[in-house]
Amino acid sequence: MDIRTSNRDINYETKPLEFIEVKAKFKNIKIPYLSVKAGSGDVKRLSYKNILIGDGFDLGSYAFIEKEIANLESKGVRIDIDKRGEITTEAIGEGKVSLFVTEDKNSLIRWLLSKIKFDLISASEVLTYIISAINSLSSKYSIADLFRLKFSLRDNIIQSIEDHLNGYAKAKFDRLVTERKLTLSLGEAYTISKTMEIYNPFPETFQRSLFDKVSKLNDEEYRLAKAIDDLNNVKWWFRNFDKGGFYIQGYLAYSLNPDFILETVSGRVVVLEYKGLYLADRTYKEELGNIWGSITDKYRFMMITKSDIEEKVNRIKEL
Asked: Buried b / exposed e across 272-291, counting CB within 10 Å, b at 16+?
C-alpha cells in the first residue's frame, strides 16, 4: 500500500480563522473511559485525584528526595516561569539575591511556601515538608547558598513531592490491575457530539471520516488519516480532541488523549496514538493504552510511529 503524501500542507499561520459546523454521519457513538468496579457493583470513572490519590495520601510519611541542585543563579538577572505560568524577575549578583533584606531560614521558608502549591495537599503539609527539606540540606548548604539556589531548590522540592504522589498513585493503580478491578462501561463513556465546530478545516474531504471535514492535520497525521480512510473495513474514524475529547486516565496526573478513534464494520473500536520513536512518555502511554485495549475483545489500542504506519494499518484490516 502506498501511503506517501505530496505537498498538501497549507500555511495555517497566515490563513485567517475559518469556522464551519459539521455533522456526524452516525449518532450515539460512545467510547468507554477506563473505570473501576466498586465493591457495591457500581462503576466509577478512574480519576487520579479522587480514586488513585483520594484521602489516603499523607505527605508527612515521606522523606525529601534530594537531587542535585544546579547552580543556575550565580549572577545577572533570573527570569523564571514556574509550572503555573507565573513569571518572576529578580536581579542576582555575587551570591546575593536582592529580593530579601534578611536571608534567614524563615524568609526562605515563606518564599518557598508561596511558590509550592498542590491542589491535592494542604498548605500545612507542604510547609512541614519544606522545613524538612531545608533541614536535610543544612549540612551541605548554608542558608545564603540555598537563597542563591532557591529556584533550583523550589523545583527539587516540587519534583520530590510529585514523585511521592505518582508513586502512591501507581501502587494503587497496579493493585487495580492485579485485582482485575479495571473495566470498560458505556455508563462511563465519552459521547461524540452529533455536530461540532472546527476551524481552518483541512482542504481534503475523507470518505470514511465521521465528519465530512476535519480540522488541520500535519504531514504525519495526514499520512495516517489517509491510510485509515482507504481501508474498506473501516466504518468510520474520528480525529480526537487534545482537550475535551476521549481520554484514558492512568497513574500520572495527565491522561492519554489518543489521536484517532475508529470502528470497523465488524464492530471493533480501535484507538490510535501517533508518537515519535523517542518521546519520553511513549512507554507510559503505550502501557496505559494496552491496559485499556485488553479488557474486552471489542476495544483495541495501537501505538503507531512513523516507521510502522503501514504495518499497523495492515493489522486494522484484519479486525
From this structure: bbbbeeeeeeeeebbebbeb
* CA distance linking residue 187 with residue 223, whole number of Å: 34
Measured distance CA(67)–CA(262) in Å, rounded: 44
Report the C-alpha gap between 30 and 45 in whole angstroms: 14
Non-local CB neighbours of 49 within 8 Å, separated by 6+ positions: 119, 120
pLDDT lower than 70: segments of the chain = 1-16, 70-102, 276-280
Phi, psi of 278 (to 5 degrees): -120, 20
Burial class (CB in 10 A: 0-12, 13-18, 19+), 56: exposed
Strands (E) across 163-227 are located at 182-191, 195-199
CATH code of the region 19-29+192-317: 3.40.1350
pTM of the predicted structure, to 2 decimals: 0.81
Q: Per DSSP, what are the bridge partners of residue 234?
A: 264
Nearest to 297 by CA among 259, 275, 249, 264: 264
Q: Residue 101 gets which letter from DSSP?
A: S
What distance in Å separates the CA atoms of residue 83 and residue 115, rounded to the nearest whole number? Answer: 10
Note every long-range contact of 174-181, with CB atoms under 8 Å and residues 24 or more positions apart, other chains counting: 174/251, 176/36, 176/46, 177/291, 181/36, 181/37
pLDDT digits (tens, 9 = 90+) for 134-144: 999 988 889 98
Residue 122: enclosing H or E segment and its boundaries?
A: none
DSSP 288: H
Question: What's the rounded Cα separation, in Å, for the pair 64 and 132?
Answer: 7
Q: CATH 3.40.1350 region(s) of the chain? A: 19-29+192-317
Instruction: Kindly report, residue by residue over 74-108, the tens digit of the pLDDT.
Output: 444 455 555 555 555 444 444 444 444 467 899 99
User: What single letter denotes the amino acid at residue 138?
Assistant: S
Give the three-state DSSP class for 310.
helix
Cβ–Cβ under 8 Å, residues 258 and 248: yes
